Amino acid sequence: MTQHHPATLRRQWAADLTATQLYALLKLRVDVFVVEQNCPYPELDGRDLEPGTRHLWLEEDGEPQAYLRLLEEPGGVLRVGRVVTARTARGKGFSRRLMVAAMAEIGDAEAVLDGQTYVVDFYASFGFAPEGEEFIEDGIPHLRMRRPRR
Predict the structure, then answer these.
(1) Domains contained in the chain, CATH given
(2) What is the pTM of this model?
(3) pLDDT in tens, 110-146
(4) Which of 23, 100, 46, 39 is nearest to 68 (CA)?
(5) What are the strands, taking DSSP E only, across the chain?
(6) C-alpha to C-alpha distance for 69 and 102, rounded to whole angstroms
(7) What is the pLDDT of residues 31-78, one digit of tens each?
(8) Neighbours of 27 (CB within 10 A)
(9) Do the strands 78-85 and 111-116 form a parallel or antiparallel pair, or are they unpaired?
(10) 7 near 58, Cβ under 8 Å?
């Protein structure tokens, strides 16, 4: 019988990522955002290695299954971004686990995100509220969302 090991939560500052970790995380993002969603866009935006960037992910057997990053924005605002789950890992609650961990990092600070419209209710469950009109980014409807400082 195969023994199942639960997904392990990992968190690293940008400077602490190994090249192997960074490659695996970027590959997951490209596999989903560029290939699966058929959105040719510059996924590597230069922000992954900023000193204030925090990377959170869940891995099984050394492979990332879900991921998000927290970026520092002006005024102490934190931006949740690149929330992604591998196709084979969906339906396991991994995005929720990551968001719980992200909210612990964010604490009382103001936070923003640009979420795909179909998951607005998911982000609302963490205190984010839509702000402004829906917009199209890379062919996919999105909404800006904000959670005020607590």
Answers:
(1) 8-147 (3.40.630.30)
(2) 0.90
(3) 999 999 999 999 999 999 999 999 999 878 899 999 9
(4) 100
(5) 8-13, 54-60, 63-72, 78-85, 111-116, 129-130, 135-137, 140-147
(6) 8
(7) 888 777 877 766 778 899 999 999 999 999 999 999 999 999 999 999
(8) 12
(9) parallel
(10) yes
